[in-house]
Design a protein that fits this description.
about 350 residues; 14 helices; binds pyridoxal-5'-phosphate
Length: about 350
């Protein structure tokens, strides 16, 4: 089975398991887990922020990061395909009472003018006030696209000028950093709050980090506990994340090459499905044309290739630590032959 559903399906490597088993641990709710403290310090430093909060998931880190910037009854503005809008089960509204307004985008990319047209700080008493903008880099449902640094900086200036907050969902910021060479700290400093994940391309089994000012993180620590997210000897998990920071960032290049090879294998037979030049990182989005994506995904699965149907005509394949380029080329050939035969 070649599993390209997501980069979250990776298993910890033997070296990562060893690091996890050997980690010094303590009770993190008491602030006594040295490995968690080290991961929080190190990630905050990498991203140019004062403090970090180790969280169970990217969804939790986003939930807390956005809440730091937006009060109940206010809105956060994001793009229509944003993970926070589509895939966090409405948590921002259901748990924190925020509303969310979405702007159109192409492949998830920031259109500064598009945001400028909808931001409405201090819009009361008849309209909802915008309190923050949230962007995603790389953009998952956009196809692993990288936000141009200049757009992120310009949108940040706009937010500052309007007196609103700026959150980054950086679940795959590592991929953007490796692909562009833009230092993580340069990305991080543009934002008030940033979430990053260790459990995606970096291959750790569990864990994400929220970084921000020390005062913000102190508040988020209370809210995390309120949500049942206070954990005890979490250093076992933090050790996996530290190992990933040390050993798995630069190798993301291999995932990007594998994704390009997968796309090329598909395009060779079915050019209308994907333009290989559009593949920027480890995610490939395929257009199944007149075919229902779910049908193609089911047929691929029968032939040992696991991809996700994310829309009526949209398939997604994600490369990662546990698949080789050769496997991705093979998988691309299987999907291409299916599309070619069924179309
Ligand atoms: C862009 C993005 N943000 C946030 C998340 C949420 O991460 P988690 O699954 O750890 O909650 C994901 C998950 O795939 C994601 O792709």
């Amino acid at each position: 089975m070649i599993d390209l559903r997501s980069d979250t399906v990776t298993l910890p490597t033997p070296a990562m398991r060893q690091a996890m088993a050997a980690a010094p641990v303590g009770d993190d709710v008491y602030g006594e887990d040295p490995t968690v403290l080290e991961l929080e310090r190190r990630t905050a430093e990498l991203l140019g922020h004062e403090a970090g909060l180790f969280c169970t998931s990217g969804s939790l880190a986003n939930l807390l990061g956005v809440r730091l910037l937006v009060e109940p009854g206010q809105e956060v503005v994001c793009d229509v395909g944003a993970h926070i809008a589509r895939a966090e089960m409405g948590a921002h509204a259901a748990v924190h009472g925020l509303t969310m307004r979405t702007v159109a985008s192409t492949n998830g990319l920031v259109d500064v003018d598009g945001y400028g047209a909808v931001l409405a700080p201090n819009a009361g008493p008849y309209l909802v006030s915008t309190a923050a903008v949230a962007v995603e880099n790389t953009h998952n449902f956009g196809g692993g696209t990288i936000q141009p640094y200049e757009s992120l900086a310009a949108l940040g200036e706009l937010c500052r000028a309007q007196g609103i907050g700026y959150h980054l969902d950086g679940a795959r910021l590592w991929n953007a950093h490796v692909a562009t060479g833009v230092p993580l700290i340069d990305y991080g400093r543009l934002f008030d709050t940033v979430s990053v994940c260790f459990s995606k391309g970096l291959g750790a089994p569990v864990g994400s980090m929220l970084v921000s000012s020390a005062a913000n993180i102190a508040k988020a620590r209370v809210w995390r506990k309120r949500l049942g997210g206070g954990w005890r000897q979490a250093g076992i998990l933090a050790a996996g994340a530290l190992h990933a920071l040390d050993c798995h960032i630069q190798r993301l290049r291999e995932d990007h090459q594998a994704a390009a090879a997968f796309a090329a294998a598909v395009a060779e037979q079915v050019p209308s499905a994907v333009d290989p030049a559009s593949v920027e990182t480890n995610i490939v989005v395929l257009d199944t044309g007149d075919l229902p994506a779910a049908q193609v995904a089911a047929a691929a699965l029968e032939q040992g290739v696991w991809v996700s149907a994310l829309g009526p005509r949209m398939l997604r394949a994600v490369t990662h630590l546990d698949v080789t380029t050769e496997q991705c080329v093979k998988a691309g050939g299987v999907v291409a032959t299916l599309l070619h035969t069924l179309l």
